[in-house]
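[Meeting: bench + compute handoff]

Bench side (C.D.) handed over the final construct sequence. Compute side (W.E.) agreed to return the predicted structure before the next meeting so the bench team could plan truncations. Sequence as handed over:
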Amino acid sequence: MTGVPATDGWRTSLRADVVPWLLEPDTPAVRHLALRQLLDRPEDDPEVAEARAAAMTADPIVAILAAQQPDGQWEKTGPGYATKYRGTVWQLMFLDQLGADPADERVRRACEYVLRHTQASSGGFGASGRMGAEAVAPPSAVLHCLNGNLLRALLGFGWVDDERVQRAIDWEAAAITGEGVERWYASGTSGPGFECVATAGVPCAWGAIKAMLALARVPPERRSPAVARAIDAGVAFLLSHDPAVADYSAGPWADRPSRSWFRLGFPSAYVTDVLQNLEALCELGLGRDPRLGRAVDWLLSKQDERGRWRNEYAYNGKTWVDFERQGQPSKWVTLRACRVLRAALS
C-alpha cells in the first residue's frame, strides 16, 4: 500500500485499501462522509460541498425526501413511529446517517415535525403509533432507543440550541441516572440504568448504545454534570461485558445474545450490532481502550479479501428505497468499520 500518511496507519490493518472505493463519485453520500470522517476535510472544502450537493440529488436521500408530505411528515400524521420503517421518525434517523444537508428546507421541516409531535411532555421522544394532526407521543411511550436515535439526528442537524432538544438531553441523562425523574412507566422506560419494558425491566444494551451515541454528540463544553454522569454510567454498563461477546441480558426469555449483534448492517434503526457498540465507545474517546481489543479483532475478521464488509442487515423492501443489496459488499458498512478502526488503531 502506497501513499498512506503515517497518521492513517489504520489503513494498513485492512486486507486492501478501501478508501479509494469509498471516494468513488457513484455513491456521493458515502463519498461526502468519507471525505469528512476519514480524511478530515472541512465542510467548506469544495470536494465535500460538491459531494454533499450530489448526495441530495441521488438515492437514497432523493427517494426519502420525495416521499415526504408538505407538512414535514411521512406516511401518517402523528408521532411518526408507524409504520416501520417508513414513518417519520425513521426517515429523520436515516437522513442523518446518510449525511443529508441540515440547511435543506425539507430536512428542517422534518426536524420541526418530530419536535412538535414525537416529543412527550417529559422531554423524551416517544414510540407511539397515534394518528392525527394534533396527536403527540405520551410520556409512557418514551424509550432510550428512540430518544437516543432522534436526539442524535437532531444534534447532527444542528439543533443543539433549541430548548426542546435541551429537554430531550435532560430527559436522557435523568433516565439513565435516575436523578430528578418523577415517574417511571411500566409501558416504556421502566427505571434508571437503561431498564426498559422491552427487556422486562432489565437494562437494555441496545437502548444504552443509542443513548450514548446521542450524548456523544453533545459538545463537551455543553455537557452538564448530569450528562457527564450519564455518560460515565453508560460507558460502565457497555464495558461491563465484552463487546465482542455482547452477552448483555435481553430479558428473561433470552438465554443467549441476539444474532443481530453479529450481523453488520446499514441503515441503523432500533436494532444494533457489535460495530455500533464500538462506534459509541469510540465517539466517547475510548477507541484505544484495551477492553475493545477482541471486538476490534472480530471486526477485522469480517473483511473480505478486498478489505470490504458486507451488508448483512439491509432492511430491503421495508424502507422507501433499498439502500444496498442484502449480503453484498457494502460501502456503508465499510465506512462504519473504517471510522472505528481509525479511532482504535491510528
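W.E. noted at the follow-up: Residues 200 and 346 are 40 Å apart (CA to CA). C.D. will use this when planning the next construct.
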